[in-house]
Specification:
308 residues; alpha+beta; Pnp Oxidase, Chain A; 6 helices; 16% helix
Length: 308
Amino acid sequence: MIHPNLDSAPSPWHSGERALQEHYGVAEQMDRVGRRVIRDYMPDQHRTFFGQLPFVLVGAVDNSGAVWASILEGAPGFITSPDPRTLRLRAMLPEGDPVSDRLVAGAAVGLLGIELHTRRRNRMNGKIANSTQFAFDVTVEHSFGNCPQYIHPRHLAFVPDRGAAVQSLRAEGLTNEGRAMIAVADTFFVASYVDADGDVARRSVDVSHRGGDAGFVHVSGDVLTIPDFSGNLHFNTLGNLIANPRAGLLFVDFERGDILQLTGRTEVILDGPEVEQFEGAERLWRLTVEKSVLRQGAFSRRQQGGPA
């Protein structure tokens, strides 16, 4: 629904987000902004945007409480919006994905629609209203757009014949293949979540994009150190990590189609000499990888002609 009086609309921010907004002296400003830009329905342009996408990023939580980011693919049109508060996705995650069995009625999910060649992105967080073997509906709880900042433009093309069957390599911590993939990445996606007041029924999952120069994520053993640059001051991801220090990261090799999924525990570093070592960073966060899944050749699209 559209709230006719923004002052009476509920604040969209939870305690972790508010803590960071207060730390940086923007809480009052962001209270007004949040009530205006974060909706409980999708504008028509968002509904149209999701409908033209060939893939969407999904964040979900497994039975152990670990959160993962995944990619859900289909021919353009596989996502539809029968009404402003519903997205219908006619696809399911493949076997071997860490949360392939969690897209079930009642589960909280985060969705990120992103179009790399235009650098457009929109986010939607909600609950699965119903689910079948081949499709599921998500009811909107939060819907909002993001600016194109830090998105590396890419032209991707569908590759119908990708050769050998997808190989899944599971490990505790990071493998050498995973470290090598992260060391050259300029893009990743991150899923996080909170249970409001510790109530699983009030779980909210979010998935977001992160970008930087190639190699901007520092890797040491099973620990990733990630610079956090100037953004929209929502602090959706870091606010979640303050409240619940779990994250799921997804890296894509856009030339080979490999997908690397990680889950683990986080630490947020707001200031200090370590932050100053990362040029342009306003703060840092770390992920200690507990589990990783490398699915070789799993992504059906490949980069064409190098970054745009």
